[in-house]
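Sample entry (142 residues):
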Amino acid sequence: RGGRLMGIAGIRSGIKAVLDATPGINEALAYPPDSVSAVPAAWVGDARATVQMGQLEVWTWTLPVTVVVARKAVYAMEQTATDALLDDVMTEIRQNFTLNGTTYGLNVTELRQGTVTVGGTECVGFTLTLVVKEKSATTLEG
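Predicted structure, serialized as tokens:
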């Protein structure tokens, strides 16, 4: 922390490792898939960032993490399974808050449960919005 920035590839890799460590997730990906084969599956979606330049270069990344539990068939049963997996994912996020000391925190700011369409297949799951902040001591030159 405070030195070199981890960057988006490193953040994706760190979040993927958190998802890999979550009991019950069969497939964890750093990028969105074209289709899902092994469910439950999880992936990191498209990133956005705001950047503050100055004595410290501060990057605030916003990334969705989507978890699909099952293909949609019996919605109430699949939602029950989604609830349990959400608790497991949150436990892993809390235990890996700094992504091994490389960021200033992996914060969950929003949750949306429901259906997710992947490659034309309707699945049941949830999407968490994660905010990750990085800071680096930077000397601006010009």
